[in-house]
Every structure is written in C-alpha cells, then in structure tokens.
Write a structure and sequence with these properties.
By secondary structure, the chain is mainly α. It contains 14 helices and no strands. α1 runs antiparallel to α11, α1 runs parallel beside α13 and α8 runs antiparallel to α14. The longest helix has 28 residues. The two termini are 24 Å apart. The mean pLDDT is 81.
Length: 291
C-alpha cells in the first residue's frame, strides 16, 4: 500500500504556512466574522470537490459517536478565527500571533490530565522558556497603548479556543484527516452565518481585485489545503509534541511581520524569538521522551 506521510513534517509545513497568514488577512477589507465565514466556505467547497472527484464517502455510521466532537471543534475553530483577525486589527501581526500562541501552554498543562501523557522536566523547561520568549516579544516595542492591549486580549481569547480545537481533536480517533476537516469547516459555517448576518452582513461587493485574490489564497490554500495537513498530522502526534512544534508558526509570523510588513522589532523581541526557536529545537533533538 502507499507509504504513510510523516506526520511531523506535515505538521511543520502547516505551521510554516499558517505563519504567513497575517499579510494576506491585512489585504482583505471585510469584518473578522465575514473573513472567518468566507474562509470556512471556500475551504469546505475545495474539500467537497476533492471528495466528489475521488468518490470518497464520509462513513457517518462509523463516526456518529464522534460527530458532536467534530461539531464542537468546528465551532471553536470559527470563534478562534474571529478573535485572531480582530487581534490583527488592533496590534502588530507579531504581537497578535504570539499572544495567540499561548495556546500550546494551555495544551501542555491540560494534556497530562486528559490523555495521561507524561510531562517531563525537559518539556516543562521548554515551555517555561518558550513562554518567556513570548513575554519578551509581546511586552516590548510599541505595545502599551490601549489598542495594543485590546489586540493582545483578542489574541489570548483566540488562544483559548485554539487550545480547545487541539484538545477536542485528540478525542477524535475514527475520522480521517480530510473527513474531519470537512465536517469541522461545515460546523464553522453553521456557527458563523448567523453571527455575520447579525453583525457586519455580507459585503463581498466591496472587495477589489487584490482583496479577492488574497481571500481566495486564504480560503483555499491557507485553510482548505493546510488544515487537511494540520489535522491529519495532529491525529498522529502526542499533544505535547504538537504544542512544541506549534511555536514554528509564531516565529515565522514574526519574520514575516518584520521583513514583509516592515513592523519594528526590538533587540528584546529578537531575544524572545530566539528563546522560542531554541527551546523548540532542543526539545526535538532528543525525542526519546516524546515519541
């Protein structure tokens, strides 16, 4: 049979791609709720076409017990997107993304209780030092104004729902990655439609050519393709390993913020990024405790 993809490489690739999201979102002039809805709709359409072409059927009879978890995960994912996109509006992409990535800290604390995954001293050190790196990055620079604080709070709120997505998916055992992703996107659409209609409404007619291009990239590539990779890999990785590798996303986001968006980054913020990457790599160099 075909050789199974390496879940670690798939997860790393998805994190790198997620880290490039900020500049695209900045160029889509719609509300956060609308963007989250369109993102979910486009991704669901892409996956549905693939399922039709490959004649894959979702085995509802086999996965019916896990459908509530899938729906809850999709709803959490939709709310997570709204809060993250709001964070981008109030503060820098790097600050928003890195405050959002306190989610792995939440996952690490909860995993030993939910999944009986052993939390080693080395992992604790990695998370403490990585969190220190986040503090250095989000606590310096131009931060401190009211809008920046609001942005960070939105990012932390998104972190809570992102952690919920990770933890809920660890309970889902019988659903393949692409089926899982498709059902979660459908659930996100169901949750987001009434929210958008009650808030901003549909404003697609205001998008120019650049906005449409960026929206299609975010919906089809950053979401449809990349989330399939992400959830497929997440199913195969221990929660703590996934949490450590997740730090690749904010590190890439910081590089994009500085290089592409020209957002200032201080020496202290650079030190924070080095802490995140350094302790992530240290955890991966000796993987005996996290197989």
């Amino acid at each position: 049979m075909t050789k199974k993809h390496n879940p670690r490489l798939m997860f790393i690739a998805s994190m790198v791609i997620f880290g490039t999201l900020g500049p695209f979102v900045r160029n889509i002039p719609v509300s956060s709720g609308e963007l989250a809805l369109y993102r979910a709709v486009l991704a669901a359409l892409l996956i549905s076409v693939f399922l039709l072409i490959t004649r894959q059927k979702i085995p509802f009879s086999d996965i019916k017990r896990e459908v509530p978890l899938l729906l809850a995960s999709g709803a959490a994912m939709g709310i997570n997107w709204i809060l993250l996109f709001e964070a981008y509006k109030y503060t820098t992409v790097s600050a928003a993304t890195l405050s959002y990535y306190f989610a792995p800290v939440i996952v690490t604390v909860v995993c030993p209780f939910l999944f009986h995954e052993r939390l080693t001293a080395k992992q604790m050190i990695c998370f403490v030092m990585s969190t220190l790196g986040l503090v250095l990055i989000t606590g310096t620079g131009r931060l401190g104004s009211g809008t920046d604080i609001i942005g960070i709070l939105f990012g932390l709120g998104a972190a809570v729902f992102y952690a919920a997505v990770i933890l809920l998916n660890k309970f889902i055992k019988k659903v393949d990655g692409i089926h899982r992703t498709f059902l979660q996107f459908l659930s996100a659409v169901v949750v987001l439609i009434p929210y958008v209609l009650m808030t901003s409404g549909i404003t697609l007619n205001h998008l120019n050519e650049t906005g449409w291009i960026h929206l299609l990239i975010v919906g089809l590539f950053h979401t449809g393709v990349t989330y399939c990779m992400y959830f497929s890999a997440l199913k195969e990785l221990p929660g703590q390993k996934a949490a450590i590798l997740s730090y690749i996303d904010p590190f890439v986001a910081v590089l994009i913020s500085v290089i592409v968006l020209k957002e200032a980054m201080t020496l202290q913020q650079t030190a924070g990024g080095i802490l995140i990457l350094g302790f992530t790599l240290w955890n991966e160099i000796s993987p005996k405790n996290v197989q």
